[in-house]
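To: structure subgroup
Subject: Chain for Friday's discussion

All,

I'm putting the inputs and outputs inline so they're searchable in the archive.
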Amino acid sequence: MPLRILLAIALTTLATPALAAPEESWQALLERTVAETRARNALPAVAALVQIDGRIVAETAQGLRAAGYPEGVTLDDRWHIGSDTKAMTATMIARLVERGLLGFDETMGEAFPDWAATMAPELRKVTIAQLLSHTAGLLPVTEDKDLDAVLAIAGTGADLRAQRARVARAYLSRPPASAVGAFAYSNLGYVIAGAIAEARTGKSWEELVATEVFEPLGMMHSGFGNPALPHAHDQPWGHEEVPGGKLVALDPATPGSDNPGLIGPAGLVSLPLHDWLLFAQDQLDGVHGRGKLLKPATYARLHSAVVPPYSLGWGVKTGADGKPELLTHSGSNGHWLADIRIMPRRNAITLLVINAGNEAANKAIVEIGRPLRDRLHPFD
């Protein structure tokens, strides 16, 4: 069974770059770096985008939608972004907070009053903000055995709201898996946060993200799960590494080609780079006090580290003035890899996606991102 994971932020890559800017154009730099890195790491496809001061200065999509098939990727293709979904879930919840439907400091006992008495005492006092900052003491659910246990509790059927509610009730009744208040990355926390939003609004997490994030920002080509249709090569496929290191394309119809729908709030969005850029730009605008989705104070809450370097859905590096110098996250379901970096002081955004999630893909994200960050000098 392939490892089904939703990657945490790449915390080891927050260091300040120091190299001099190259002379070649942004487009030439990006095309060359992606081509060399993709070939060196034997990856099926890579796409990347760089925006500075509201203008796309470079973008490229190189390689195959599915290894062994002739269709090439395009700049309009959709990519699975895994745990980069978390920032969207946190933003959706922030919209509900601003309307008074939820509160960041609302406790689990207040969120689920009908069964608060059955909750573990330590978890009854956990807040929604702690769910979103991975400080709620909940099970990580980053390994197959943990996901299988969650799925057994969730049960079967098409009603994902009911599944998430069952999981929330079961795990909030158990003792914490780690110390409440300490950082411990948890996909389960986001599933429970999604369940709270569903219980309060009567709408599914999918409906809420679509109406509260996608639609207001014009993200008209964004959705959930595998981007391609079963048996079709209309969009990229994810890839699985088999013994010997070879990457094999996974038909979306293949069981295990993606995480189950239950996991949605923690990492199931798929979208084209230009849609993702709309979301990234709004988060960047929010740092500067002019975002479309939220009030400045709410963006500040989202972007403020709870236990450094994690805020609510973001890895964050904060400057001396208390404002973010970097918002970042990486995400994967084991068959894809995606990385986002927002650099407010440079007014820059970089997006990187790969239709593989193996160690070579993780290595490639670093190899592509380093020269881009070196040229940007985001912390000068």
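Points worth raising on Friday:
The chain has two domains: 11-85+208-376, 88-203.
The CA atoms of residues 154 and 167 lie 6 Å apart.

D.
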